[in-house]
């Protein structure tokens, strides 16, 4: 079924059967380093199969005298990487099923399959006795095995469930042997071989004096390495040295293990301000948005007599020296890199890797930053230590129970640029690494007065709230404010395919969901809120729009992706109570809607976190009239300002009102909750529900204390039909009403004027505890839109 | 003797000048940079029609990383140092603006339990404190001024410049990001009336504001905003009953809409009327 796998490996049994005398042209020393690379690749197609393979082994063997005066391998280290993939098409396979009606348990099906094998790592083979051949231990052989996964896909519709994927371990590479001394040319050995007329593999070895170089790195908490947290422009230095003599040094940042995350923070792309702010002007011309996140900045390697080769990922000393100090520079708040060091003898041979002493270990590379828990994040930042990069489980505030804020731990660690000044003064942008335990919300508003209310929303909700400028998310929604139909052609950012308002845009727009097996960002992008001061559709102080600006009548609230814009009209908000109430509570209220908080009279239609309006209200086409009662007395009998008597043929039938505050409606619940409405005219009295009415005729009214019945037109036009509500109604006492500047309510029990006893109780308990509906995480919409 | 006295006086003068220069230099830029923002109709860009007023807001505040200096004082208030420059295709355009409301400051304070609270008032000295104090100046260009503009795109920049002779406090210059204003040749009449009525109201020309608001209502009978403005203008002119009628009509219209929000702005105005106070937007 499978092609022979050992095509990948060079089956060369360790051939050091007779080390013999050192070759005259090889370094005349008792310790010699044999370094080299073997690589092979292949592709094949035909007979319903398409495949490819690629493998590389680098090795470093050190040869030393043994106890008997001969030479033996004192140490052997292999680093290998191999991949093998094959697709098989349209072949017949036998599947096993439960017995059918004829008792058969096996059936034939036509299917496709894909097999992928991968293998890689570093193996210390240890010393070897001369002539012992391939002396790998069983554990070492097991480490070299590749892990293979085969998945099956039936070609016919309607077949039973195909077999699950299968896994197995296979041998992809075998241990290399060194060439014989006689096969060396000078101090090197080169061999290449073709396959089918094309180059297929090569094997190269060089022999040099073992230089015994070392690079020591301290893991002590107070040392620079352990304290290093990547910030653009931040540097770390390392020193490699040889114990005696001199050598040339090379330092490499592993291109495969050095990140190239787009931008330099979760919400910041590289721009001109970047180079100024982080003093990286030497990189301005060459450094790209997706450049390596750890580099050798040429400004640290300007001395040409000291450094002959200076590239972003490789530097080499110009000549032999005892030691070399190298400086690496971070270019990203989430930078990840791997530094390797090499030395080369002046006389002969190739670059030898420098072992890195990282007590108590010896390693072939050093991770930048220090990341012993291998989660891509600097161990120095305690808050993220031990957490999975892709986790999103911020628990506070609890809200509707949906954990997370749409941002992975890695995105929170990489952090966000926040601004003031509309991104004009980029030097004053602040970088913040957000807490992985507390939900975060990002809001862009051009208006500084609205921006300064954000701390109030944060305090009311417990959500960490950050002000950003337009460049710090993927742009404002494109809204046609003049749309007469309400249809929007522009990108509102309210759908997964939209590209506007995305906060974690650097990774999302690049679709870089994972890197090196670590999750970076989630499936659904996380959105910020656009909060703007402008005219509202219907003269309202504020309104939150879903996908329907400029009308904004949608009711599918939260999470932020669903809110195209939150509007506050500063020109309409009054200066009631010194102007602080409306100007702070209105933006707080609208931002509440943007994260799913309902009005207190709304009911939840289902449990998916999506609200549908259930308004118990008293709005009507006909003018509303409440029946006579303690707060509705015929003004001809008891003159009173602000009472409108309504009459039919001279008989008092009730009082004209415009708005009736419903029990358990939008004015109900906790008195200081910003989602609760305040101000009213009359209210339903506590007791049995009074939602019934009858439409009756009326022909006149008395306003205030005039006592004169006027034709029914000074207030309600020519209407003759009025809606006469049934039940008891009382005056709404605005003097008792709170400024709604407290916290969003965690329970639905009424407080303040809604917690008073008997008839003093104004609107009672709310339908919902609005904090139970808070949802920040846009991933709640995964698969639903 | 006389020569010695002359030397002493000369030395003292030199020392005095040196000290003054030192103080002057040390004051420059020592306390951070003020941030200036300029918005039109609440955003960094807008479109108006020829003959419609332009409403601008100039904001002054500090940065999060540096609180900012103190600018201006009783002798020369901060808003007197603000200048506006309008250009079209790089050429300066004469466009006079008037202050429509007194310069104000909003201040955010935080209590020991973390609860934020806000206060508002007037201030001649702008003592910046990051985003905790935002100073605001509201300006408007009259309809007559914009009637002279040709259709096209204009850039407006606000700048803050201390006079050269000022030797105390913060000295320097700050500029806002350019604001893009598109002036269209045509605009629906009700929009122009809305702008004009608002301008007249904000500049306390209540009688004219009432007349224009009524004209606006005649063209756009469903406009709740027109009724609110009419009520505000009537109230400004002392007609409380007229204002109440206008607000009540606005409330009736608002109640008939399908909006999810209640017309609290109107209810608050009505409540203020009943309580005998006023509830003007500032």
Features:
heterodimer; A: 785 residues; mainly beta; 39 strands; elongated; B: 282 residues; alpha+beta; six-stranded mixed beta sheet; five-stranded antiparallel beta sheet; disordered C terminus
Oligomer: heterodimer
Strand content of chain B: 25-35%
Largest sheet of chain B: 6 strands, mixed
Task: Tell me the number of helical segments of chain A per DSSP (H or I, 4 or more residues long).
Answer: 8
Structure classification of chain B: alpha+beta
Question: What's the structural blueprint in terms of helices and strands?
Answer:
The complex is a heterodimer of chains A (785) and B (282).
Chain A: E1 32-46, E2 49-65, E3 71-96, E4 106-124, H1 138-144, E5 146-154, E6 166-170, E7 188-195, E8 198-209, E9 214-216, H2 224-227, E10 235-241, E11 248-253, H3 272-277, E12 294-295, E13 307-310, E14 314-317, E15 323-330, E16 337-344, E17 352-353, E18 356-358, E19 361-363, E20 366-368, H4 409-414, E21 416-418, E22 430-432, E23 440-444, H5 448-451, H6 454-461, E24 464-468, H7 505-509, E25 514-515, E26 518-519, E27 529-533, E28 542-545, E29 565-568, H8 580-594, E30 624-626, E31 644-648, E32 651-657, E33 660-661, E34 682-684, E35 693-697, E36 700-703, E37 710-711, E38 721-725, E39 729-731
Parallel strand pairs in A: 9-18, 23-24, 23-27, 27-29, 30-38, 33-34
Antiparallel strand pairs in A: 1-2, 1-8, 2-3, 3-4, 4-5, 5-6, 7-8, 9-10, 10-15, 11-14, 11-16, 12-15, 13-14, 16-17, 16-20, 18-19, 21-22, 25-26, 28-29, 30-32, 31-32, 31-36, 34-39, 35-38, 36-37
Helix pairs in contact in A: 6-8
Chain B: H1 2-27, E1 35-40, E2 45-49, E3 54-61, E4 70-71, E5 82-88, E6 91-93, E7 98-110, E8 116-122, E9 126-127, E10 133-141, H2 143-146, E11 152-161, E12 173-175, E13 179-184, H3 189-202, H4 206-219, H5 224-236, H6 240-255, H7 264-275
Parallel strand pairs in B: 2-13
Antiparallel strand pairs in B: 1-3, 3-10, 4-9, 5-6, 5-11, 7-8, 7-10, 11-12, 11-13
